[in-house]
Design a protein that fits this description.
By secondary structure, the protein is an all-alpha fold. The chain is 76% helix and 1% strand. The chain has a two-stranded antiparallel ribbon with strand order 1-2. 45% of the residues are buried.
Length: 307
Amino acid sequence: MIQRLLPFLTLIVLFAGLALASPYFLTQTNLASVARQTAVFNIMGLGMTLVIISGGIDLSVGAILAMSGLFGAMAMERGASIPVGVAVGVLTGLACGLVNGSLITRLKINPFIVTLGTLGIFRGTTLIVSNGLPVHRIPQSFSFLGEGVLFGVPFVLWLLVICALATHVVLEHTRLGRYVFAIGSNESAALYAGIPVAFHTTAVYAICGVLTGLAGMIEASRLMTGQPTAGQGYELQAIAAVVIGGGSLRGGEGSVIGTLIGAFIMGLLSNGSDLLGISPYLQQAIIGAVIILAVTVDELRKRKMSA
């Protein structure tokens, strides 16, 4: 029980520590900035949660985010309305997710290898289409998606709540959710039990792509540009959020609330490091160390249970 509460306790301690360490942490401007930046990782993390529970992994989400943001911005630059531009970005994410899922299930190749390959394909395609140049000429009102406020709350937090609730319902109250846990726990047993493993595995990567596409449009809105180099290293943030929140890289374990807590821990670590003047290079080292620590705790817990 204590191990399951550890991410939540860590979040509380980290929040309190930063509040004491920096007078700027509890300002409305800073907290709103943390919420907006963390929402991108949170929404990506929700899709990654499904993938990791199913026993897979997706290293291409950062490249998918960049491609989705660029294609959505290009659509608006060419005269499409904001809703159409957002839809283009989300559908781009869906297409990338379907490619990942189809390659994994049809070619029977390890998800790590497939998504490592598609990371390069998606990133390279994005740079080729854009000639390496960002897209700037997009409607000013598009900034509301990433920077707007609704009823006193950043609009992205409303989107995050909707995505989190939808993901929770899928995991806990649908056949897809039950099958995802079964596939992640023992894919061979799930196959013998009559579960359409290939279909549901592809669906999981498609959902991850949709959520990453939405995160890409939010990122484009925050930057007010379609940036072909966006999202570099974001796959590490998304995986870390799931693992810190209690997800197992072996599959079969994970939760929406755990991922949300994990993503907020990552967001606070990054924000706190900036406020305290810690080098961004050291931040990367800290993130890597936190991932190793979280996986180590998970392994020790499993060994204790099997002993």
